[in-house]
Design brief:
This protein is of the alpha+beta class. It has helices at about 1-10, 120-125, 135-150, 155-175, 185-195, 200-210, 215-225, 230-245, 250-255, 265-275, 280-284; strands spanning about 15-20, 35, 35-45, 45-50, 55-60, 60-65, 70-75, 85-90, 100, 130. It has two domains: about 1-175, Jelly Rolls (Sandwich); about 185-284, Homeodomain-like (Arc Repressor Mutant, subunit A), CATH 1.10.10.60. The strands form three sheets. Strands 1-8-3-6-10 form a five-stranded antiparallel sheet, with helices on one face. Strands 5-4-7 form a three-stranded antiparallel sheet, with no helix packed on it. Strands 2-9 form a two-stranded antiparallel sheet. It is elongated and about 80 Å long. This is HTH araC/xylS-type domain-containing protein.
Length: about 280
Amino acid sequence: MMHEMSSMATIKPSIRAAHYYSYSGRVKERNRFGYCCAFHLIDKGMGTIHMNGRSYPLRKGTLLFIPPGVNHSFNISESQPISAYDMYCDFYSKKQTLIHLYFDPPRDYDEDLMSVVEDKKVLNSLMGVIQLSGYPEMIQTFIQIIRLNRVAIHFKDEIVNSLLYSWILQLANLKLSDNIPDYRIQKIIDLMEQFPGGHPPYQHWLELCQLKKSQFYSLFKQMTGLSPNEYLVRIKMHRAYAMIHETDQSITSVAESLGYSSIHYFSKQFSDYFGLPPSELRKK
C-alpha cells in the first residue's frame, strides 16, 4: 500500500477528453477498450459494467475507474438508461489527441495513441467502482473539472490539471487508506469548527450521526486519529492561537469565547499544547 501511495504522488495527469454522455445499449458500449485512463461518474440510471471477469453495479453517485487497454462492457437497464460525466486522461505523459477508445483490435488499434503507463500497480489500485454519494465535494469537484476543461480561460491547462491531480490523490486516499473520511463524522467536525466554544451534549452528536456511542467513537478516531474531545481541544487551541495573535481581544475574553469558565485551566491547556502560556504569545 505504501508503494502505491508514494507512486501515486508522481503522476502528472492531463485530460484527453471529457463530456456528459448518455448510454443506451449501443453496440459500441458493449465491447470497448480505452487508450487512456477512464473515469465515469454515474449521474442517473442503473446498470452494470463487466470487466476483468467481474460485474460491478452502477447507480447514481457511482464512480468507475478503468485503466487503459482493459476490455469492458456496459449493460444498461432499458427502463433506466445511464447518463454519466466521463473523463479520459493520461496519467504520465500527455498525448495530443482526443481519441480515447478503440473497439475492434487489432483492426482499429493504433499503438501510438496508447497512454504511457509508468506503474501499473498505481492504476490497478484504483480500478473498479467506489460510491461517492457520501462525498458531495468529490462529486462537485469532478464535475467542475470537466466544465472548466470546456471553456477558454487563461491558464486553463494549469488550473484543470492541478485540480485533477489533487482530486485523484483524494480518490487514492478513499481507495487505499484506512483513514477514510465519513460524511457522518465530517458533519460533527464541521460543527466543531463553526462553534468551538459550544458544549453540545455527546448525545446530540450521536443523534446527528445516527450512530451508537461506540460506533461514533470508533469512526471518529479512525478518521482523525483522535477522540472527539481531543479533536475539539485541538480546534480550540488553534483558534485561540489565531485570536491571540491576530486580534486585540483580552486573553480572558478569548478563553470565554471558546467555552472556558476558568482562565487558569485555559492557560494550562494552552501551555501544554504550544509549550508557552498565552500571555507569552501575546507579548511576542
